[in-house]
Amino acid sequence: MKLRVRTYDVDASEPSVMIHDDDCIVLGVKENDRVKISGKSVWVSLVDRSDSVLERGEILIPNFYMGRYDINEGDEVEVTHSPKPDSVMYIRKKMDNKKLTKEEIYAIVNDILESKLSKIEVSAWLTSLYINGMDLDEIANFTNAMVDTGDRIDFTREPVFDFHSIGGVPGNKVTPIVVSIVAAAGLMLPKTSSRAISSACGTSDFVETFCNVELSAEQVKEISERVGGVLAWGGSMNLAPVDDIVIKVEHPLGINPRAQMLASIMSKKVAIGANNLLVDIPMGPGTKVPTLEKAREYVRDFTELGRILGMHIECAITYGDQPVGQAIGPNLEARECIRILEGEKHPASVVEKACDLAGIILEMGGIPDGATKARDILFSGQAHKKFLEIVEAQGGNPNLKADDLKPGQYVQEIVSVKSGYVHTIDNKMLVSIARAAGAPNDKGAGLLIMKKKGQRVEKGDVLMYIHSDNEAKGVRAKEMAIRFNPITIEGMLIERA
Amino acid sequence: MKLRVRTYDVDASEPSVMIHDDDCIVLGVKENDRVKISGKSVWVSLVDRSDSVLERGEILIPNFYMGRYDINEGDEVEVTHSPKPDSVMYIRKKMDNKKLTKEEIYAIVNDILESKLSKIEVSAWLTSLYINGMDLDEIANFTNAMVDTGDRIDFTREPVFDFHSIGGVPGNKVTPIVVSIVAAAGLMLPKTSSRAISSACGTSDFVETFCNVELSAEQVKEISERVGGVLAWGGSMNLAPVDDIVIKVEHPLGINPRAQMLASIMSKKVAIGANNLLVDIPMGPGTKVPTLEKAREYVRDFTELGRILGMHIECAITYGDQPVGQAIGPNLEARECIRILEGEKHPASVVEKACDLAGIILEMGGIPDGATKARDILFSGQAHKKFLEIVEAQGGNPNLKADDLKPGQYVQEIVSVKSGYVHTIDNKMLVSIARAAGAPNDKGAGLLIMKKKGQRVEKGDVLMYIHSDNEAKGVRAKEMAIRFNPITIEGMLIERA
């Protein structure tokens, strides 16, 4: 059927063309079906139907597609029903709990990236992965498929070190310290990080408070090779880009299937050319890894996956049952992190974690007694010097001071209603409170936790401060904190029956 | 946040409001999240984001919602981020293969119906049902939830008989014959049918060639109680309406999870008040029920489900390994069906199946020796008389003749290239060929199968005729038939190696 093109200006999360109901009937096209569109180029799109916003004989094509497929308003295109892509069959195969071949996995990844699979189909794919899983051979193919559908960085300097925290623990601001120590020791660590999805503050959310994180692949290469380290946002490069589409479907479902998680992490590392990778696995209730048994499963997965992919991988299981340090939120985390680079020894949990992780990487790089060496580099000021080089290379202030970073002006206190010892800290609840206060978008918003697990508390002591840039958000966060009580004191009634 | 309403006129398959990117950041709203909108009424909607089709401070609301929630262009509404509904948690529970409570199932069904769950979430739900399934208690609750979210028909005349074919076999045009026989015997059978989703011709697709099938609940009640039978399209009433939303998500995935299938069928039957139900289970390669073992599972499921729901259910396992009769496609099936009501004894497969099914229903209604009685009613012309009464009640011609229904004017012959016996007939391929010819939308389009399984064929004999209303479609269907060869002759080479 010949249809006349009209363009429309909508940023749909799922790009699709729109065709009149009556034309759809003639074409044999139902909702969520596809059509093949032949104009100057030939392509396939999902279809929406309407009987009100367009006339018979028209096809509405989003702006998004116009340039990509060389189409202009008023063009006449030939439109036919297009069968489901083969990848839908392969998704069915995973629903039936069968092992997928390399070709099948590549077809699925490719079709997700090219918008040939709808949100319905991507959701079925992720749900199948969540329920039926993948073995490590499949995950290795999945990883390579994600790498091959994006760009890669080829460093002329080798080897490439990298590390990754699988996340779930708030306040984990060790990345700039680790990168600075490792780079100061003469190794190269081109670190890419993410922004918060469901957390209160991703590494890029707080690094961008003091320098630019949106670097091109060329900038990442140049800065890393020259300075030894970089603190980039992974999303500004085209590394394993299919991940960004998948996350949008994972987010509403609240799932992160093991196969997808492993392939997402590893694909970014393969794409950046890492030869040596340290994986930080924070463990504890409320993290992604609640038990030691589960943590050890991850260790086995990563080690074996590294073997298949030809990458040397070590893992560190770390404490994740309460925040790392005191600060949660962009400016607060940046300040706490930079203070430690400036020589502050407190909070010890941040210093210890950063130096232990950096130490392992140094040893992977052939530097003996890594943990001691890492502390030497940090306490001697070498790491701070290297950090400021990185900040300057990323367009930040070379004379940056920790106290340049200001917490939000509105402060709420949360006070203990009894005396005792801190018994548990609810990570997820702290994240919700920090987000209610405005984190990560309001840079001053966040929490300062004044009492950690096992510490003595007297009635009336401040358990935490809530900072916000907006007073109403601060008040709302305080109400949540009082209602849900994320820091519990031993000796409290758990339940009154 | 206060936003100013603008309306837009789009028939989205997934209704959602649109908010400017910057406002979404302030609201803390990501793609596929929800907002609570407080104006004259308070409601929750999914959100799309844009930075081009609207200004900051605006909210675009589809026409669809304007009346429903008493909103006008230019209104100011209060918009806040709304957490996921609890039903998302219950979907997660099914992903984790746990049994759902009645309340949880009701919440999911209700939220699907009220557009509170996105396509992503409905897809995850169906995929979980496909993989993890439901037990019969859950399916009974699921059925009742689907019934309770729609209308019911309360007949003053009792008992209510019904029958249902679980489908998958083309050319199954027995419904008008069964209904006419049963009604002529004095029992009441208010039959609702569907249109084709992926098949070549649903019962409603061919019944509407000779009378109106879009009846209201009141018409179904009035005609059934007066005439004894009706041949209505189920979609024109509001019986278990959530099904229509679910089908749109099942269709692109090509799945029909057992739990969803059973609950869909049973909910329509409960809603119409059926006390006695006969389920036809066509069995054979290429149908939904490939083996006898699988068929017996369905028998157990339906019988037990009937017990829980308080409905008397019997099942008939029938042959589904080739089309019923010769005709596939709306006018062709209608003609073949009406000819039998007019006294024609051929094709025997149609006569036998219709009389056997009707016979079981008669016996369920206390009429002994049902199969013989059914044949008496058919061959004596009583069924034909009753059929014309039903047609007239549904606005059709009371003097309708089978030959009023004309096959498409363009005819393609498919000829055997060798002699032998018909070995297999590929149902799915026949359906694809009939659809390529234009069925079910082009009423004249379809197939006449001239040779069935086991029949002797001489080289040059016509295996089938392809009819079409459009010559190009007929030629395309012929090409498919030659290429894919749906009717194979014994003694042919299966492969030449």
State the major sheet of chain A: 6 strands, mixed, barrel
Shape of chain A: globular
Low-confidence stretches of chain A: none
Secondary structure class of chain A reads: alpha/beta
Radius of gyration of chain A: 25 Å
- The fraction of residues in strands of chain A falls at 15-25%
Biggest interface and which pair forms it? A-B, 47 and 48 residues
How many helices of chain A in DSSP terms? 18
Number of strands of chain A: 18
Distance between the termini of chain A: 72 Å
Averaging pLDDT over every residue of chain A, what do you get?
A: 91
Oligomer, anyone?
homodimer
Question: How is the largest sheet of chain A built, in terms of strand order?
Answer: 1-5-2-4-3-6
- Helical content of chain A stands at 40-55%
3D architecture notes:
Chain A has helices at 21-27, 63-68, 86-95, 102-113, 119-132, 136-148, 175-184, 203-207, 217-227, 242-253, 258-271, 292-309, 330-341, 348-364, 370-379, 382-393, 427-437, 471-484, and strands spanning 2-8, 16-20, 34-38, 42-50, 58-62, 76-82, 161-165, 189-193, 229-233, 276-283, 312-319, 327-328, 410-415, 420-425, 446-449, 456-457, 462-468, 487-489. The first copy, chain A, has 497 residues and is of the alpha/beta class. In chain A, the strands form 5 sheets. Chain A has a 6-stranded mixed barrel. Chain A has a 4-stranded antiparallel sheet with strand order 12-15-17-13, sandwiched between helices. In chain A, helix 12 links the parallel strand 10 (276-283) and strand 11. Chain A is globular and about 75 Å long. The model of chain A has no long low-confidence stretch (mean pLDDT 91). The interface between A and B is large, with 47 and 48 residues.
